[in-house]
Design goal:
Helix content: 40-55%
Number of helices: 12
CATH topology: Rossmann fold
Number of domains: 1
Strand order of the largest sheet: 1-2-4-3-5-6-7-8
Length: 317
């Protein structure tokens, strides 16, 4: 990958860095209020890293699907997908502690994504789920890849929504490694973790415009960010920069599809974006790569019909 492409990538992924800077910390657990709006319950699963909202009931012919939201996002971002899936599915929506009003609990220090991936593996085992479908957006895509690579027998199918296996490549020179970009990751982390709440919120509020094209869909994710813990989000973003899953991709045995959008930078064409995703996932034989046009990062909010059409086709394969 040449330096011009990487320069564009840094600019494009800068939006993701800014998205982490969404708002001041709040320890209020807002998920109870959601329960009044939608007919779901919380799974009987003890974890200090996450909790799980379940829509639907087990039964003959009912399949299980796990939906993992991204950085500082709540299970609510998936409501349109839950409504679309309807009967025949039991939907398990992950809510990471420290994000979107959930108390920090076990995510008070250290990495976030990797421990959550392990907890989802434990959840699948303890709940007796039979190779569920896993769909992850952004950071949720990273968690999904971790889960499928490290517990290949636990996942039936994997869909990654707008995420690459090594985001750190976009913060360094060609050939960058997790070790070489560690100083940059630390600088990004310090900038996020020590920002004044007002600055943190303002930067996030600006970046959300670039993450969701559809103005009417921005309020929910913006509220999620404003009620996420600043320190948890900051550490999780540093972890994402430093996580290189490319060497692990070959361990994924589940059929995998990656949906993505053109990078939000004038220098990044569809063709360059396609090339980057092809190179990024070269280590995963048989992966299906599908670009969704006219959408920003939250594909399922900007282009729900296109997203659900791809999801339906993937589930039917």
């Amino acid at each position: 990958m040449n330096s011009q492409i990487l320069t564009g990538l840094v600019a494009a992924l800068g939006l993701m860095a800014n998205f982490a800077l969404v708002g001041p910390a709040s320890a209020q657990d807002g998920h109870a209020a959601h329960a009044a709006d939608h007919s779901h319950h919380h799974a009987d699963f003890e974890s200090t890293r996450m909790h799980v909202r379940v829509d639907g009931e087990a039964g003959p012919g009912v399949r299980d699907i796990i939906l993992i939201p991204g950085l500082s996002s709540s299970p609510e971002v998936w409501q349109g997908t839950v409504d679309h899936l309807g009967g025949g599915w039991r939907v398990h929506r992950i809510h990471i502690q420290g994000f979107a009003g959930a108390p920090v609990e076990g995510n008070a220090e250290g990495p976030v994504a990797a421990p959550v991936a392990e907890e989802i593996a434990r959840y699948i085992s303890e709940q007796g789920l039979d190779r569920p479908v896993v769909v992850g957006h952004s950071m949720g895509g990273t968690i999904g890849m971790m889960l499928a690579a490290r517990h290949p027998d636990a996942v039936g199918k994997l869909m990654v929504v707008d995420m690459v296996p090594f985001m750190g490549a976009m913060f360094g020179a060609p050939g960058a490694t997790a070790e070489s970009i560690a100083p940059v990751a630390e600088q990004v982390y310090q900038g996020m973790a020590t920002a004044a709440p007002a600055e943190y919120y303002a930067r996030g509020a600006a970046s959300i415009t670039g993450m969701i094209n559809t103005e009417s869909k921005r309020a929910g994710p913006l509220e999620d960010g404003a009620t996420s813990d600043q320190q948890v989000s900051s550490r999780a973003f540093r972890e994402l920069i430093l996580t290189d899953l490319r060497p692990e991709l070959a361990r994924i045995t589940a059929p995998t599809e990656v949906l993505y959008v053109k990078f939000n930078d004038a220098r990044m064409t569809n063709e360059i974006t396609d090339m980057i995703y092809q190179a990024s996932f070269a280590g995963l034989p048989g992966v299906a790569l599908k670009r969704i046009d006219d959408s920003a990062h939250f594909i399922f909010l900007d282009q729900p019909e296109a997203f659900h059409a791809r999801l339906d086709a993937f589930l039917a394969e």
